[in-house]
Design goal:
This protein is of the alpha/beta class. It has one domain: P-loop containing nucleotide triphosphate hydrolases (Rossmann fold, 3-Layer(aba) Sandwich), CATH 3.40.50. It is built from 13 helices and 7 strands. It has helices at 15-28, 59-66, 70-83, 85-92, 117-129, 147-164, 188-193, 200-205, 208-211, 214-227, 239-253, 264-272, 288-295, and strands at residues 2-8, 33-37, 49-52, 100-104, 131-140, 168-173, 232-234. Helix 3 crosses helix 4 (85-92).
Length: 304
């Protein structure tokens, strides 16, 4: 059984930076990690890449050969990858024994709530290689400063969750820059908990661009609230933030149960336990005490 993450989100939300930071943190706590780049437009990788889709197909070649733009080219690349899934599986097989997998996907959002090829790639990998994957959907935190963009991000997150049908965690990335584009109208908890979107209506009405779409916006907010699936956790590129997020991920895809033998009751106790479970039971370059002292200091004051 192999565990990993499917990292998705709009362009510029920080997917590649996230994969780089998360891979470094996983290595620090003692996990062997392999990053798989499935973005044929990503030609400047900051991390060591175990598998690179550019060895199979390049976006620049597709655009020239088929006279396509970047969006059409990315759809073609994902379709080509789906039809050549055996190539990807053969590259992943040597990593399955002892690696944790990070899949860095393209930033074209249509691939994850409109087109089916990316979903089919993920589904085939899960079925054929017995993978346990969690989707990490990154959204740039500065969108919270614009009510209209925030509602769009909510709808995109909900659509992606329903389309992919994976354990799913929505993340507000670059949380340290959240107010760089303007002061928030509400406390951060309002944007992460997504509880009562009616409060956004007044602020939407102040913008003449969105005032004429008031009824449509209200209906969209009602859809998000009726499903009651979307909420966010937060992320800054620091080790303590990665630790909090990784605990959520490990609970969502079942990593916390790996190697544990027990009854259904014992599994239920673990599943219902707080996030500070015995996280450092695996060998680490640092001792358990050292890691916890380094990254969990003043954890009670750490933002949820």
């Amino acid at each position: 059984m192999v565990f990993g993450q499917v990292v998705i989100g709009p362009p510029g939300c920080g997917k590649t930076t996230y994969c780089n930071g998360m891979s470094q943190f996983l290595k620090l706590i003692g996990r062997k990690v392999a990053v798989i780049n499935l973005d044929p437009a990503n030609d400047a990788l900051p991390y060591e890449c175990a598998v690179n889709i550019e060895d199979l197909i390049k976006l620049s070649d597709v655009m020239i050969e088929h006279s396509l733009g970047p969006n059409g080219g990315l759809v073609y690349c994902m379709d080509y990858l789906e039809k050549n899934i055996d190539w990807l599986e053969s590259k992943l097989v040597p990593l399955l024994n002892d690696h944790y997998l990070l899949f860095d996907f393209p930033g074209q959002v249509e691939l994850f709530f409109l087109h089916s090829n990316a979903k089919k790639v993920i589904t085939k990998l899960i079925k054929n290689l017995d993978l346990r994957l969690t989707a990490i959907h990154l959204v740039d935190a500065h969108l919270c400063s614009d009510p209209g963009k925030y509602v769009s991000a909510l709808l995109l997150s909900l659509s992606t969750m329903l389309h992919l049908e994976l354990p799913h965690i929505n993340v507000l990335s670059k949380i340290d820059l959240i107010e760089s584009y303007g002061k928030l109208a509400f406390n951060l908890d309002f944007y992460t908990d997504v509880q009562d979107l009616s409060y956004l209506q007044f602020h939407l009405d102040q913008d003449p661009r969105s005032a004429k779409y008031r009824k449509l916006t209200k209906e969209l907010c009602d859809v998000v609230e009726d499903y009651s699936l979307v909420n966010f956790t937060t992320l800054d590129i620091q080790a303590r933030w990665f630790l909090r997020l990784l605990k959520l991920i490990d609970k969502s895809n079942g990593y916390i149960f790996a190697g544990i033998e027990g009854s259904v009751v014992e599994f239920s106790k673990i599943a219902a336990a707080p996030l500070d479970w015995d996280y450092y039971r695996y060998p680490s370059p640092l001792s358990s005490a050292a890691v916890q002292e380094k990254y969990m200091k003043d954890d009670d004051d750490f933002p949820d």
